[in-house]
Amino acid sequence: MATTPPTFPLMSSTNTLQWIRTLVPFTFRVLLFWYLVAILVEYIFPGFVSNQLNLDLFLWLVILTALFSFVIERKR
Amino acid sequence: MKIRVNTIKLAKGIIFFIPIVISVWMAVQYFAVSGNLSIGTNFSSASPFISEWYPQNRAGDREQNLRTGDTYQQLVGEPDYIDVAVPRSYDSVDVTVDYNNDEQPLIEFGLITNPEPWSVNLQAFESTVIDEALKTWDRIDTDGVTLLQRTKQFNSLDEFRNAMPSDKGVGTYRYQLYPTFIDPTYTPSDASLDIDRYFRGAHEFVAYVKNETLHITFDFADMNREFNADPVKIEVYDKGQLIDEKLLSDDGDVTASGVNTAVRSLTVDIPNLAEGAYTLKVVVDNDMVTTHIHSDQEKFVAHNQVYIINNEEYRIPFPEMNLDGTTVATNATEFIAKTDHNTGVQTMTIDDEPLDINTVHEFASWQAENATANTNTVRTVVMPKNDLLFITHGYMAFTQDSFFDPDYLIQSVDEMSTLDQLDHIVFQDYHSPEVLRRDKTQTVHLDLAGVAGDRKKLTFILSAPGLDRERYMIQINHIQFDFQREPLWQRLRQRFHL
After folding, report:
1. Residue-number span of the structural domain to which B11 is assigned
2. CA neighbours closer than 13 Å in the CB half-sphere of residue B270
3. Would you say residue B168 has pLDDT above 50?
4. How many structural domains compose chain B?
5. Distance between B15 CA and the closest CA of chain A, angstroms
6. In terms of domains, do B15 and B36 share one?
7. Contact B129/B136 with Cβ under 8 angstroms?
8. What are the chain A neighbours of B22 within 8 Å (beta carbons)?
9. Are B10 and B40 contained in the same domain?
10. Residues B339 and B437 in one domain
11. Using one digit for the tens of pLDDT, what is the confidence trace for B177-189?
12. ipTM of the complex model
């Protein structure tokens, strides 16, 4: 009986969508968590974060992933 | 399916782990765990730590060479500043600058240690005159001091100092030579000199003595504007050697009460001195004002800097102050001046040539048109409203007759110096930049111990006298700051006495 060669799971478009649906909301939660930690640390140690990272850019990243996450959750 | 679930878990782990790595890296930087922090910029983009060079009218915008892709900033005026923000305070910094400079003869680089009152720590950066001499002149190094000779005449620095030639050009850079100055035309008389200008802060004066007692009285008043004791010390030097010292203790008010004390006097009285010039250093902080100087010596000059405050701004603490303008005789070929108050905005004149001091806290500069031909010229500088910090290389007298130049043999190697004027050069604390074709690299070490404030926001300064006047340009390609302090574990050991 002919068998179809196994396909590498990552190359399937269905799997790609599953990756996105899982990882984008996860990334948003991680970024949000670390952003709040960064704000708290910045309050206790002024300059700890802001001297090395752009907090405004960080916030935009959080907002962006939140938007993507929201869109993904809506389409489920 | 299991492989996919494991792969997703792995991806989640990486996503969560990356911020932890970043946090640890930031903590290492912030707490200076290793004691070192290196930051730099090639001006290709804005840096979170390092500003661009400013002000805008002297430093160009960030630019890029479209052919090579190199980015840089060009400096066309001076002085120029660059700010650096660091997460911790450090003890010292090595600044390495990659730059191009084809024509500017003298550059110095340093740090603003205190904006008010203004103080700067400047280090040697580049002297094209010395660099040229280093190529072919005879060189003798002694304890960090270098003597260059166009034609070898002396076998050691001591031999040179003891028999300084009076018919050869001698240049110094960051090194003080003390020639024996004798004025054959001078005859001591009973006439004395009274200076009613109010000098704020530390000053240096030089008096000429011949067959007479060195006798000078200084009157002082403590403004008590700052929280600290304000003692007074007058040091008397003979060719760099301290020969006498007078002390006046604080008035007892160490608070910032703003209450003036009664005027107190210190007198320097030294008989039987050999003929020559003697330096008197008034060592005080900016709370102390010298309100009057009485000198039995007619030849009496101030050296390098005066801060005269006979101005409306100081009327309240000194109601009796004479507000007339000040006229100074000086042999300076260039100077800078600034006022810190609106009442000090004025137009100075240098031999009737006007110079506007119209921006508070900002230095205005002046330079003689052809200074090489005017090194012996005595000019008249008028400050109609005073309240000026006046900084130069040279001497200033408060009457024409009292002017003299004890350094007549010696000239500072500055931006106006040329190699053909000199036969001997003595310098210290300078090494030539590394040169590769047109590119130069220089490293300057700066101690941060004397910097006011928390030392987390630092302003560095590049001084290139004459840059805008001569329309030269310096191109900064890259600047690197390597900060140093004790490693964290060592500081913890000291803190907990381990």
Report:
1. 2-30
2. 23
3. yes
4. 3
5. 7
6. no
7. no
8. 53
9. no
10. no
11. 877 788 888 998 8
12. 0.76
